[in-house]
Write a structure and sequence with these properties.
Layout: H1 2-16, H2 22-149, H3 168-173, E1 195-196, H4 202-209, H5 213-221, H6 230-233, H7 239-245, E2 249-250
Parallel strand pairs: 1-2
Helix pairs in contact: 1-2, 2-4, 4-5
Length: about 250
């Protein structure tokens, strides 16, 4: 403060060239103090502005960093959604393909079911036909047996005619033989166990598998079979016939 007073006095003396009054001196000192206070106030205000600028710069840097992080996160979310959309489209195509395959398999199964149903119907009709034939055969056999048991009446021969000597043995030998009773074979059960192609009879193969008698005889004559497929390998039955009966036969010993 003394330095500013001396400087002010020197300036006043230099300007006026003479001594100044006490009032002017005090006024000058007051002006100097006021100027000094304003200068200090301006300096403090400048420091406050500089501090505020530094704070704003720090806040700006923080906002810039947050904005960059948010931009990166938004980009990551967009890429994630794009990848999920691609995965969903791929999965949808896979499901469509699986649906088409299942539909095709269902169609094949339905066709096989219709074939099996038709085969079952034909097999039942075959069994009924053979049952009728066996019944007719049994009835005709019984009728033949009853007819054979009746005594034969020869024309021109009297019952009271004496029997010549030595003719008893001839009469005994001319007696008709007892009829042979034919027992019809037992029908196998439809839909039961698998038919063993190494053990089944010709009639069983005809009744249960619907084969013709000629084919059934070929099956029996070409035994034994280690595998079912040998029916085709040995040219016993065609491949188409084998495909129809392969699920109902076995070649186990």
């Amino acid at each position: 403060m003394n330095r500013w007073v001396v400087i002010s006095l020197v300036l006043l003396m230099g300007l006026s060239g003479c001594m100044v009054s006490k009032s002017k001196y005090e006024a000058s000192v007051a002006d100097m103090e006021s100027a000094k206070a304003e200068l200090e106030k301006s300096r403090m205000h400048q420091e406050a502005l500089e501090e505020q600028i530094r704070n704003l710069k720090g806040l700006n840097e923080k906002i810039s960093t947050d904005l960059e992080m948010m931009t990166t996160e938004v980009q990551r979310i967009k890429e994630g959604r794009k990848n999920e959309h691609t995965l969903l489209e791929t999965r949808e195509r896979e499901l469509d393909q699986e649906k088409a395959q299942l539909t095709s398999k269902l169609r094949v199964v339905m066709d096989q079911y219709q074939k099996v149903k038709a085969q079952n119907k034909a097999l039942k009709e075959t069994v009924l036909r053979y049952q009728k034939e066996l019944k007719d055969t049994r009835e005709s056999t019984a009728e033949s047996a009853v007819g054979a048991l009746k005594p034969s009446d020869k024309p021109g021969v009297s019952k009271s005619e004496p029997t010549p000597p030595g003719s008893s043995s001839v009469a005994a030998s001319s007696k008709p033989p007892a009829p042979k009773i034919v027992t019809p074979p037992t029908l196998p059960k439809i839909g039961g166990d698998l038919v063993n192609i190494n053990k089944a009879s010709v009639s069983d193969l005809v009744l249960t598998l619907g084969l013709s008698r000629e084919v059934a005889e070929d099956v029996v004559s070409n035994r034994p079979y280690r595998l079912r497929g040998e029916l085709v390998a040995k040219n016993v039955i065609p491949k188409a016939t084998f495909d129809e009966i392969k699920d109902r036969i076995t070649a186990s010993p």
